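Subject: NADH-quinone oxidoreductase subunit K

B.,
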Amino acid sequence: MIGLEHYLVVSACLFSLGLYGLFTKRNAVAVLMCIELMLNAVNLNFVAFSRFITPGGFTGQIFAIFNIAVAAAEVAVGLALIFAIYRDRATTNVDELDWMKW
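Prediction pasted inline below.
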């Protein structure tokens, strides 16, 4: 039988993969995808806690839907910024985006 701890382990693995990718990837699109992976790990936690802690409620599912909406908006804004930067600089490498540094 699959319990809460199984969901938490899968969620921790997804979050760790996203965090690793966030720190190691240099492409801005890959960084956005890693952030999405971390947000999906959080969604899995919301739904798992809602299922096992308060089985009759839908609080976790509502938070997950809200989180998906925020993630979609974040990706839309992030991709728009990346397209604008690529049009200006012809690169999406985050190491080369240093015009905001002193």
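Helices lie at 4-24, 28-52, 59-89.

T.
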